[in-house]
Amino acid sequence: MFSGGSNFIKDVDGVFLFILAVSVLLLVLITFLMIFFVIKYSRKKNPNPTNIRGNIALEILWTVIPTILVIGMFYYGWVGYTKMQDAPKDAMVVHVVARMWDWDFTYPNGVKTDTLYVPVNKAIRTELESVDVNHSFYIPAFRVKKDVIPNKKNFLWFIADQVGSYDIACAEYCGLKHSYMYTKVVVMPEDEFDKWLMEASKISGITDSLKTTEIK
Question: Which of 39, 92, 133, 149 is deepest in the core (most CB within 10 A)?
Fold first, then answer.
């Protein structure tokens, strides 16, 4: 929990822990009440059954409390979701194409790779597109996932805050070689990323590579 490499860790893990805590409390409470009533109203102690009338206050209580809990879960999740939908205007855009069975990443200067390279502490907006079937772009360590659907453009953004290498997977079954759709996102210090992008541009024969000031 709370370990990973993006700006969404606390929001997503916080919602998960909140729902988990509520679920555990309800499990303990319901189990306790079940055992309590089984013992209290056992046939040995109550050989003659008696009619129990309804309790309006109790019925209101067990309706209102779950409603408040569900609304709380929804609100907590919605706050985190809206952040995921609000990409910064200065984010670096990477075009992502999904196909059976690999990922293509195209940078603003035209460089193409099958591994995603990004600078640390920089907002990245991935423009998602599928050329065949439904896919799902998923970076578990960043707690981000978006469907990639044919004939529909989607996007996902994040800020990688730790240098390292993280898995990218397809979270939507897309065919016989679905398991082949694993690659990496490599988070680099910004100066190393700048150097890598320039070298990749030269190798690709691209002369109008981005200047350092344009990707900061």
Answer: 92
